[in-house]
C-alpha cells in the first residue's frame, strides 16, 4: 500500500475523492475503478452506494484500499444497479479516537420521498454550529463527520424532491464542498461558490460520470466533457440527461492552488492544463528564481519528480535518481519493533550512494511542512558523501492551516509559521534552501502576471493566511486570523 | 503489493533473494529488514529461521510480503537469537498446482550433530536426477523444490561437521546457486563456481551479514565489505570470524548480465558500479546505437526509467513522464470481475494525455518478453494522440529461456525466438523498434571492448543461447540446445 | 457455536437478551459475562456500550458469539468505565437482506443534554407507523430495527432529562419491551405494562445489575434482588441508588408462558421458581395427562431433557439418552457440500442404536413448530429398530405467530395451524402424539386451577391466538386475528 | 468449540481419531464427516489426504475443528478422488513449544513405487530410539511426532510394495497403534498386537470405511461389519476387496478400559456393547458398592451423565440436573481479562440453586485426575446451599500415567498417586468420596468374574500401574515402574 510520498507523516493530506455514475450497466464496478484512480486523495477508507430498481439501495463501506476491498466479484454482486456513487477518505474532521466505520461515506438517508446518498470532498466550516442546532431539534447524528450535517439538513427540508432539498441544505453550509449525491434515478453534483475543490464531468457510452479528477475518467475510458463550475449543481438522469442550476450567490472562483502543487495526480487535467506540465513549470520557475551551481538535480521521490525534471531542463544540470524508494513499502508496517521503528527512513528510501558520492546535489521537494522529513533526507544524502545539498521547494512556505478539506498540523507545528527561509535553511543544515515565490507559483499555473493581491485568483490561504471563507467553527475555538495577529 | 513493473505477467522474474546474519543482538529483525530490501527478488513468500542457545531453532514461513508478515513484534519475538537466515521467493521450480507453504525456504534439517537451515538463490539443473536417486535410498522429500536436494545430500553425507557436509553436497549439484545457510553458531555463504547469482558480505557492528544485494546492507546501515567470490564458501561465527574455502574446481566467472539490466535494485552496487549508473549507460549506448528524431523520451515505468534518463542525456531530447503508474496497484486485484479484467492496462498505467498529444515519443523499456505489454502501451500512447512511437529496449532480444533461477516462458512464447527485430517492429505496430546490441550492453557494464565471443565475460544465455552449464534435467525433458537446432 | 437445540431451523427463537450494570469497577467485563450467560437468547450478534468520565461513550458491536468477540483484554480496554449496557440478538424485525451491523444494539443517540444508549428485548407492534411519522418530520433511521424508534422519539421529546424523555417515548410505543438504557451516570430499566418479557434486578458489591434472567446474575456472583415489575421503570445511579416509577396506565400482567417452556435457561428463576423444576413439572403433568406403556423415556436433546426426566419420575419408566448430540456441531457448518447437506440430521444427532433396538420409546420434546424435525427424529429412531415411538410434547400446539419478540414462521407454516393432534400424529407417522393441554401447562407453572379463560394469567397467544396487545403493523399488513377468521 | 467436559484442563485427553475410506465417489466429504463424528478424540487439529487418478495426492491440514475447516465446498474440491484418510489430534508426543502444522497428520511420503499417507492413533514407546537411528542414517524429520518414524521406516524398507513396507516398519515399533494408511489405490488398517486402541471396519455402498469408533460409521450411514482384530492388518482396494494379514507375533488382547469409561462416545459400540449402557452399568455397580442416603443424583455434565442415570436407576434416588452447562462455552475464551479468568468456573457451569438448596446431593463424575475441578464443583454446590455432597467416581483412582496415546499429567500431579481415598475425601472437603473398584469396573464392562489379576483382560495401567508394553523411551528418561518403587 504505497503512499504517494514516503514520508506520509510530514505531508499535507488531501481528505477525499468522490465519484459517481448513472446510466451504465454495472455502476459498482465503474465506481470502484474510479475510486481506485482517486486513491491518492484518501487511503484510509472507502465506500460505494448503488441503487437497483428491484433490489433498492445497497452499500459497502470498508477501511483500507479500493483494490483490497472493492474488487471481488462477490462484493460487487451485492451492489447491483445502473447508478452509484463512491468516496475515498483520509481523515479530516472526525472522531478523536480514530475513524470508525460509521464515519465512512457515502452517507445515506431515507426521506419521505425516498432515499438519497451523498459523498463530500471538502470541509464545512460551520459544521459544529449546524450540528448543535440539529441535535437540539431532535436529529440523531451517527458519525463525527462534518459532512453528515448535509443529510440531516436535507431530511428536515420542506423541499418536495431531493435536488430541492439538497439545494436548501447546501445554502446553509459554509466552506468548501464538492458533493456527489444520488437518488434512485438521479446523479447530482455540486461545487461550492468558490469552487475550492475540483469536480469534473465525463461521458461514458450512454451514461455520465462525475469525478474529483480527470484521471478517474481515463481509467474507465470516459470522455472528459468539462469541469463542474464553481457554484453549479448538475442533476443527471438516464431519462432527462444533464440539468444545470446555480443555487448560490455568484462569487469569484478561488480554486485550491495546492491541488496543482501536490494533491492532484500528475496525469489529471486542471484548468485545461496537465498537472504534470504545471509541476514541470514550477521547477522551471524555481530554476529561474533560485539557480545554484551543482552536479545533479534529484527529486525527493515520488512527488518531487516533475518539478525536478523541470528544474533540470531549465538549468541544464543533469537529472538523476539519487534517492530510491522501496516499492514494497506500505502502511502495513504497523507493528514494527522498537528496533525497526528507529530505522524508519531506510525502510522507505535509500540513497544511490555510488552516484551521490562527492557530488553537489540539488534536491527538489514539493513542500516543507514540519521539516522533520527534510532533515532526515539531508542526513541520508550527506552520509552518502555528497559534497553539497541544496533544497529547492516547489511551493511557497506553508505557514497557515487549511480549513477547506486538507489535514494540516496546528499552526505552531508548521515550520514556516515560526521561521524565516534563512532560519529554516540553518535549521535543516543544508547549503541552501529556496522556496518558489507566490508570484512564481501563480506564473507556473498560467497566471502570466502573477498573483492579483487585491483579489487572488486561487485559494492560497496555506501560504498567505488569506482565508476566502471565514472559518466559523475554528474562530469559535480560538483560532486567530492573520489580521488579528 | 506493487510489483516492480506494472505488467508483471510479461516480465522475467528473479526467483529469490537470500539474507543471513550472525553476531547481532536480534537477528530476526535484521533478517526481516534485509528481506524487505530484497523484496523485488521475490514477492510470493518468505521465511526466516533463527537459533537461540536456549530456545533452539525457530522458523516462520509465510505467503506474501515481508512487510505484511515479518514486522510485528509478536512474530519477531518467536524468532529469538543472535543468528538467522531468510529467503524471499518467486516461484521457479515448484509444484504444478501452485506453491505450497512447504515449498517456502529456508529448509531445515536435523542431523546427528545438530540442525542446519539453508536458503538458496538460483536453480539446480540436475535436481530431478538427484531427487530420484535420493528417494530410492529412502529420503522423504517434503517439497517440490529443487533446493531440497541440498539438505538431503547433507543428511546422507559422512562429513563430521555441517560445513563439510555442505561442501560435499554442493559438489554434487549442478547449475547456479548462491546459498546462505546456518548451524547453531555458524553462518555459511557459498556461490557456485561461475558465480551466476550475486552474494555480498557486510559488517554490522560486531556481526556479519550476507545478502543477495548491497541494498540489503544499506537498509540496516551495514558496511559493504566485498562480494563473495565465484566458487567461494565462507563460514562465519561470532567466535572465529570469517573463514574462506574454495571447494570447487576453479572456473571462469559468468555472472548473470540480466542482473544489471533488470533484476537488481538500481541503488545496489554490482562489480563496483552503481546499477543505476549502468542502466543510465545502457540508455546512452542505445542513444548512440539507435538515435531517432523525436520530441520526448519517456520511460515505461518504473524499470525503464534510468535507461530513459541516459537516452535523454545522451540525445538531448527532453525526458518526461509520459506514462503515470497508479501507486496503489497491487497483486491484490485478485478477483476482478470480467468487466474490470478487460480494462487491465488502465488499472496500472495511465498516459499523460495533455503532454503526449501530437508529440513524437521515444519509449524506453528494459526488455521485451512476449510482447503483449509493449502492444498495449503502444495502443495507449497512440490513443492519446502521439504523432510517432519509437521503442528503444535496454537489453538485446530475449530469445532463450533461463535455467539458472529466473522464471522465463517456454522458448516458443518468447517473441524474439520467432521474429527478427523488423518483424517485431511490424508486429508491435510502432514507428521504430531497436534493441541494444550484445556488444553495446557489454560496453555499458564496463567491458570497453564488448563481448569476448570466445569466452563471454557474463552469462548471457537468454540472449545468446550459450548456456555455461548444461541443463541436464531440461535436456532429458526434450529441450534442444542452440547447437542442436 | 452450539445452538440450544440441534434443529435450529425448526424452533421458535427468542430474539434478545439485555444486560446493564452501574457502580462497578469495570463495567465492560461484567456486561460481557452477563451477555455470555444470556447467549441462548440471541446468537447472531451482540453489542456493548460503556461510559467513562474521561473517555466518554464507547461501543463495540459484533456479529457472532460473546465468547468470540467480547473476551479479549484488548477489546475490553476500549470500553472503560463504571457503567455499561449490552445486548445479544437473534433477528426478529430486521432488514430483508440479512442483519447488518447497524441493526445491532445497543443504539446510541446524542441529545442536547448528553448521550444515551438503549437495548431492547421485545417487539414494538406499531413501529412501522412510528417510523413513517418520524421520517416525515426529518429523522434519519440508521437501522431497520423496530427498536430504533425509541431513540428517535427520545431525541424529539421536550423532556428536560433523559429518563423523562424515555418515559415519554415509551408511552408512544405499543407491544412488548424490556428495555435497559444508560446515560453518563444512570442505568435505566423498564418493562412494558403487561410485563411480557422478563427483566430482573441484582446487586453486585456496591453496584447494581439489570438482566433478562437470573442466570446472568449467577455468572458474576450477583445477588438476585427482585424482578422489575410490569410497567415499572427504575433509574439507578451510584449516587442516588434506585428510584422506581410507574409511567404507564396500570394493567394486568401477561408474562410470556413460553419463557417457562423453552426460552429461559433451566437454571434461571422465574416467578420464584426454578425453570428446571417447572419443566420437570410439565413432564409430570404430561405423564398424568397422556400415559403410555413403554420401555424408555428419551429426551430430544437438549431442550426436552427436564420434561423427559419429569415424565420418567412420574411414570416410573426408565429415563435414557437414546439420542446423542454431537458436541462439536455449530453454526459454522456454513458451506456444506450438497452431499453433506443431504445428511443433515446425522451431523447433529445420532441414535444410541444398541440401546433403542426393539424398545418402545417415548420421545419428549419441548414443542412442534413446522414438524420437519420431528419427522426426521422419528425416522432415526425407527431406523435404529425401535418397536414403537410415542411423542410427548411439553407445550400445547403452536398455532399462532408471536408478535412480541419471538421469531415465528408465518401462520401457514405452523403444523398446528392446519392440523388436529390426530392429523399431526398421522402426518408424523408415530404410534402416538400428545401435547400438554393449556390447563396442564398452567398447572405446571404453578396455577393450581389452570388457565383463567376470562383473563389469562400469561400471554399464551402462540397457543390460544388471544393477543393481549393488538399487533397494529401486522394488521395493516393483512394479518387476520382469531375473531376475524 | 465446546470441549467434551467443561473442565478440560483436569481431564485425561484422548490423543487421536483416525478414519479412512476407499471405493466411494467423494472420499473427502466422507472423511470430513467421519472426523467430525470423532472430534471428541482430538480437537486441536485435523488433516485429510485423498488421491485421484488424474490429480494425484492432495492434502489439507488445519488447526481447529473439522466443522470450521473441512466443510466448505471450496476446500473439499481441492481434495478429489475415491480414496482418502484423515486424522484428528490432541497433542501427546509433540514439540515443546506447541504443536506446529507440520506435526498434524496424516503424514505423507513419496517412495520409489509411489506415495503413501498414514494416520496414527496411539503412541510409539520406542520412538526416540528409532528417530535417533534414522537421523544417523540420513533421514530428515519434518515433525516432532512419534508417528513420523513409521513413514521413514517405510521409506528405507526394501519391500517391493507399500503394504509390505508398512508391515516391516510396524514390526519395528513398540507401543500402541491403530493406523490407517493409503496408497494410490489401497486403504490399509492395522492394530498393534495388544489392540490397545480401537479400530472398526464398515461398509458404505460399494466402498469400505475404517474408523476409530462406530459413531463415525453412523454419521455417514455405513454398516458396521466388525472390529479390526488386535495384530491384524487389512488391505482394502476397490478391485480386490479386503485382504487380511497377521504380521505380528500373537499376543493376548489388552484393550484400553478407559475407552469404556470416558474416551469413546456413548453412542459407539465397543466389544458388542453400547458404551452408554456400559457407563450406565458402571453407575449401577457404584450404587451397589457405595450406596448413600441422599435426595438427588446429579451428574457432573456432560461426561458423568450415563453413570449418574445408572446410579439413580439402581438406587431409586431421583436423577436431576443440578449443574447446568453453558452451551456457548468454548476454547475461544482465549484472551480473558484477569477479572474474567478469576471467575473461571461460572463461565462454564452454573448450579441450579433453587433445586439444590437444602438437599443431600450425590455427584457422579467419570474420573478424578488432579482434583482441582472436583473442589470447585463442591464449592459451587455448597454455596448453593446443599446439605451434603457425596462424590461417586465412575473409574478407579487414576494413579499412573498412560504411555499409549493419552495425555496424562506427570505421576506427581495425579491426586491418587499421593493420597488414599480417605485422604482425597478430606482434601476435597466432601461428605463422602467413593471410586468404583477395579473389579466393579471389569464387571460393568461385562467380565462377570471381575479382573483376572494373573492376566488382565484389559490395559488398566493408569489404575494398576501394570504396563502391558515396556515404555522404553520413558524408562530411559527416568520413569520408574511400579515394581521399581
Automatic annotation (TrEMBL), chains A, B, C, D:
Keyword check for Magnesium: yes
Membrane-spanning ranges: none
Chain positions recorded as Mg(2+) binding sites: 303, 365-366
InterPro entries: GATase_2_dom, Ntn_hydrolases_N, PRTase-like, PRTase_dom, PurF, PurF_N
PROSITE patterns registered for this protein in UniProt: GATASE_TYPE_2
PANTHER family to which the protein is assigned, alphabetical: AMIDOPHOSPHORIBOSYLTRANSFERASE
Protein name (record): Amidophosphoribosyltransferase
Taxon lineage: Bacteria, Pseudomonadati, Pseudomonadota, Alphaproteobacteria, Rhodobacterales
Amino acid at each position: 500500500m504505497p503512499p504517494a510520498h514516503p514520508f506520509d507523516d510530514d505531508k499535507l493530506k488531501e481528505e477525499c475523492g468522490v465519484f459517481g455514475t448513472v446510466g451504465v450497466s454495472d455502476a459498482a464496478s465503474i465506481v470502484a475503478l474510479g475510486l481506485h484512480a482517486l486513491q491518492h486523495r484518501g487511503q484510509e477508507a472507502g465506500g460505494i452506494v448503488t441503487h437497483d430498481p428491484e433490489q433498492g439501495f445497497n452499500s459497502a463501506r470498508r477501511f483500507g484500499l479500493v483494490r483490497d476491498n472493492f474488487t471481488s466479484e462477490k462484493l460487487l454482486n451485492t451492489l447491483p444497479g445502473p447508478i452509484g456513487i463512491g468516496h475515498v477518505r483520509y481523515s479530516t474532521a472526525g472522531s478523536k479516537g480514530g475513524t470508525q466505520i460509521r464515519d465512512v461515506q457515502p452517507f445515506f438517508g431515507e426521506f419521505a420521498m425516498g432515499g438519497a446518498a451523498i459523498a463530500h470532498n471538502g470541509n464545512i466550516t460551520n459544521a459544529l454550529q449546524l450540528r448543535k442546532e440539529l441535535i437540539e431539534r431532535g436529529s440523531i447524528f451517527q458519525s463525527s463527520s462534518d459532512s453528515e450535517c448535509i443529510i440531516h439538513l436535507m431530511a428536515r427540508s420542506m423541499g418536495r424532491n431531493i435536488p430541492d432539498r439538497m439545494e436548501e441544505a447546501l445554502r446553509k453550509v459554509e466552506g468548501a464542498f464538492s458533493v456527489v449525491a444520488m437518488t434512485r434515478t438521479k446523479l447530482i453534483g455540486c461545487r461550492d461558490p468558490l469552487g475550492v475543490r475540483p469536480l469534473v464531468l465525463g461521458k461514458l457510452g450512454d451514461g455520465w460520470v462525475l469525478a474529483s479528477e480527470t484521471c478517474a475518467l481515463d481509467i474507465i475510458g470516459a470522455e472528459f466533457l468539462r469541469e463542474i463550475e464553481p457554484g453549479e449543481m448538475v442533476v443527471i438522469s438516464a431519462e432527462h440527461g444533464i440539468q444545470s442550476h446555480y443555487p448560490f450567490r455568484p462569487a469569484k472562483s478561488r480554486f485550491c492552488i495546492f491541488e496543482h502543487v501536490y494533491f492532484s495526480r500528475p496525469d489529471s487535467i486542471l484548468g485545461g492544463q496537465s498537472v504534470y506540465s504545471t509541476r514541470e513549470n514550477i521547477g522551471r520557475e524555481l530554476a529561474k528564481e533560485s539557480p545554484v551551481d551543482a552536479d545533479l538535480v534529484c527529486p525527493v521521490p515520488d512527488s518531487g519528480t516533475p518539478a525536478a525534471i523541470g528544474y533540470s531542463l531549465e538549468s541544464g544540470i543533469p537529472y538523476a535518481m539519487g534517492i530510491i524508494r522501496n516499492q514494497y513499502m506500505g502502511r502495513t508496517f504497523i507493528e514494527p519493533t522498537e528496533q525497526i521503528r528507529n530505522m524508519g527512513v531506510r525502510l522507505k528510501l535509500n540513497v544511490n550512494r555510488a552516484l551521490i558520492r562527492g557530488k553537489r546535489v540539488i534536491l527538489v521537494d514539493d513542500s516543507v511542512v514540519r521539516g522533520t522529513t527534510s532533515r532526515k533526507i539531508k542526513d541520508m544524502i550527506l552520509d552518502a558523501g555528497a559534497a553539497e545539498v541544496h533544497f529547492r521547494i516547489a511551493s511557497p512556505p506553508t505557514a497557515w492551516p487549511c480549513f477547506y478539506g486538507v489535514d494540516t498540523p496546528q499552526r505552531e507545528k508548521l515550520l514556516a509559521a515560526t521561521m524565516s527561509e534563512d532560519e529554516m535553511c540553518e535549521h535543516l543544515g543544508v547549503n541552501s534552501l529556496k522556496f518558489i515565490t507566490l508570484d512564481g507559483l501563480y506564473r507556473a499555473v498560467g497566471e502570466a502576471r502573477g498573483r492579483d493581491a487585491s483579489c487572488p485568483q486561487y485559494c492560497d490561504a496555506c501560504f498567505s493566511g488569506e482565508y476566502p471563507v471565514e472559518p466559523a467553527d475554528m474562530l469559535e475555538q480560538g483560532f486567530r486570523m492573520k489580521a488579528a495577529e
